[in-house]
Write a structure and sequence with these properties.
Blueprint lengths: L5 E4 L2 H5 L7 E6 L16 H11 E11 L3 E2 L2 E2 L2 H11 L3 E9 L15 E8 L10 E3 L8 E4 L13 E4 L1 E3 L3 E3 L15 H11 L5 E4 L6 H8 L3 E6 L2 H12 L7
Helix pairs in contact: 4-5
The protein binds S-adenosylmethionine.
Length: 255
């Protein structure tokens, strides 16, 4: 077994091969997107990684796979969806297709509208064993409470119980989170808040969170802050050093 609570520098397939089956509670990760960036010229084997992730995941464990497509010869590659379907073929449930929406996407010159979101595939080995859905205050435009439709029908108030009322509501599966300055020099770090929310939702304190494309160590940092165990795998020594530096910073107590 790989040592817990550290970043392991090397090829993720080789390193995953050193982990026993069914030892991981949650994977939160973002692989390279097609060949949009090479991160120092390293290659990776999607089919090998997918097979190992299925193998090391505990029953009821969850994989959060953040990904997007390159556009080649005028067409999006569709490789994000191909990957999700491959995980399904391996026997995982496609529990949810979520969206990470970016209020501040990096500007691109294109004949299309500004790309402002990425896929977040939530895959599970059977039924997820931990589900702590996050909630937000239910505040409507005109008052203090939002109306939640509990049955079908027109979106209007009536006396037949079409709505339930409450002070909080479960978040929608489109999360708008800014890119921020996370990553300390890594070219494609995802936001700490995105990872933090997923770790809180799909795992419990003390459980093991794995990131096989650890980059600047965002997943590891969030896991550490939330009192989870973690393993990060990263092939580029430069990024391993960034991650180790981030992890060495003091963990602030959660409010
Ligand atoms: C999209 S980035 C991940 C960024 C990360 N989520 C963060 O917040 O910093 C993908 C990472 O996968 C790494 N990578 C590419 N091939 C790899 C391989 N064969 N084994 C391990 N890591 C690899 C790259 O070096 C890059 O840092």
């Amino acid at each position: 077994m790989l040592e817990l609570n550290r970043i392991h520098c090397g090829d993720n397939c080789d390193l995953l091969g050193k982990m026993p089956r069914e030892c991981v509670d949650l994977v939160v990760t973002s692989p390279p997107y097609d060949d949009l960036r090479t991160y120092g010229g390293h290659s990776w084997d999607f089919f090998g990684v997918a097979w190992h992730l299925k193998r090391v995941l505990k029953p009821g464990g969850v994989i959060v796979w953040v990904v997007a497509d390159a556009t080649k010869d005028g067409s999006e590659t569709g490789s994000s969806m191909e990957q999700a379907l491959h995980f399904k073929r391996l026997g995982l449930n496609l529990h949810d297709t979520m969206v990470w929406a970016k209020p501040n996407p990096r500007p691109t010159q294109s004949t299309r509208y500004e790309t402002a979101w990425e896929y977040v595939f939530v895959l599970a080995a059977g039924k997820p064993k931990t589900v702590n859905l996050l909630r937000e205050p239910a505040v409507s435009a005109g008052g203090t409470r939002t109306k939640h439709r509990s049955t079908g029908g027109a979106a209007q108030d009536n006396e037949e119980g079409q709505y339930t009322y409450g002070d909080t509501k479960i978040l929608r599966n489109v999360w708008e989170i800014g890119l921020g300055a996370d990553g300390a020099g890594h070219p494609a770090a995802y936001p700490l808040d995105l990872v933090t929310r997923h770790i809180e939702t799909w795992s419990l304190p003390g459980e093991l969170v794995l990131d096989p494309f650890s980059g600047s160590g965002t997943t590891a940092k969030a896991a550490k802050t939330l009192g989870r165990q973690f393993i990060g795998l990263e092939v580029n020594p430069e990024y391993c050093a960034i991650a180790e530096q981030r992890l060495a910073q003091e963990v602030l107590a959660l409010a």
